[in-house]
Amino acid sequence: xxxxxxxxxxxxxxxxxxxxxxxxxxxxxxxxxxxxxxxxxxxxxxxxxxxxxxxxxxxxxxxxxxxxxxxxxxxxxxxxxxxxxxxxxxxxxx
Length: 94
Ligand code: SF4
Ligand code: SF4
Known about the structure:
Layout lengths: L1 H25 L7 E5 L9 H5 L5 E4 L2 E4 L9 H5 L5 E5 L3
The structure holds iron/sulfur cluster (2 copies).
The site of one iron/sulfur cluster has 14 residues, from helix 2.
GO molecular function, one term: metal ion binding
Protein name: NAD-dependent dihydropyrimidine dehydrogenase PreA subunit
Keywords: 4Fe-4S, Iron, Iron-sulfur, Metal-binding, Signal
């Protein structure tokens, strides 16, 4: 009986964790009219932004991050990942 309860509890826990994860992912807003760019002097080339970009829109050129505007969907994950604050938002029209 105890084993059954433990199993049931672990299932409930897994469901709660999954639901929370989905809610967090849904809250990652993609802005149609905003893209992101790199302030080169601030960039240390650490590549943290590369690892979080879902579009593979960032590459390192001459030791600095470069964002491909054609690929960027404006999710802002790179902005959050950059501890150097080298990434900033720009209007999509630029
Ligand atoms: S996370 Fe910031 S400092 Fe690191 S490579 Fe990307 S833009 Fe440069
Ligand atoms: S905003 Fe999103 S899609 Fe655009 S470069 Fe940053 S992480 Fe990649």
